[in-house]
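Lecture 7, part B: from sequences to assemblies.

Below are the input chains for today's worked example.
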Amino acid sequence: MMQVYADHAATTRVSQRALAAMLLCLNGYFGNPSSMSRPGRMSREVLDHARARIASCLVCDAREVYFTSGGTEADAIAIQTGVDVCLRTGKRHILTTAIEHHAVLNGMVHLAHEHGLALTCLDVSEDGIVSVPHFMNAIRPDTGFVSVMFANNEIGTLQPIAEIAAFCRSEGILFHTDAVQAVGHIPIDLTGLDIDLLSAASHKFYGPVGAGILYARHGLQPSRVYAGGMQERGVRSGTENYPAIAGMAEALVEATERMDADMVHGNMLRDRLIDGLERLPGVTLNGDRRRRLPYYVNICINDIDGEEMLLYLDAHGIYASMGAACMSGAAEKSHVLRAIGRSEKQIKSAIRLTLGRLNTLEDVAYILDVMREGIKKLL
Ligand SMILES: *Cc1c(COP(=O)(O)O)cnc(C)c1O
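Predicted structure of the full complex, as structure tokens:
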């Protein structure tokens, strides 16, 4: 049976280069990076090297890069930083969108509640994209912090981050973007963008789990979420996961080197898959057709139960999901599809197919064959 992994938005397989970098570290570097001993200094060099490589991929300064345990932790520190800036400057309003990952959405709700701040969760158009004029309208004189994701993890839509960031900068509002689905997949040049804080996660760009990136622009001190041994300049205490960090840096360098080719490949596979799916009965694409990540497709299918379809696909070696990984199997339904106006019945029929760099046109043809039979069988 053919096997097609189509759940890259949930996590990606560690690349051979990233694996080799990690093994080198795990085998040869055993010192604690904070220790003054020679082994410690060697591990410290691994960290410094990884930080410099990541900074060059994102076009920023190495001192603007903080290592975290993943996307969620980077988001949490960024949001805490934004809220702390509001509290210091007397701003009482924070804003995010209705289609954020739960790491941002729940974090914003929690901190707004804790500190009595007003929170706007901006709705999006049916195409799954934040409208810039609508966004500008929602800004208040007392808005102090905004968080808008770079690319959506469920439907793949790209957000107008350059415009939103520029507007925030001109209004003196701190701006964070959850770029977990974008970093390593589409070009991001931080010198050309008015972004104050950005989050990324290694395992979404073919690096290992357990490592993430928080970018904080010069002059902005990220908040300390908990105290400890002051690693990462006090922002994220605890012995650094330097093998994973070395793997993450290697994965990001590799992703950056091959980005142009991967994007061409990914746009081609995505468009073929969308074209084919739209010829099947009852299929609707979720999110704008063109302003979306390479490789990413999310559909609703009339009168189909998404969970049954997923099981059918799984039994035929196709590994997809209904939406965010944290919802699969759970009763909770997609807040993103609700935000773009899908009915509860449609939401229950959703299938997310996110391909990756190792997938081929044969995989797309196979997915389309199995889906065609699946719809016939399950209708
Ligand atoms: C996966 C993901 C996260 C969470 O990252 P973890 O490394 O799993 O903590 C946050 N935001 C987005 C958009 C994601 O896709």
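Note for the exam: Residues 16-257 form a domain with the Aspartate Aminotransferase; domain 2 fold (CATH 3.40.640.10). Keep this in mind when comparing with the next example.
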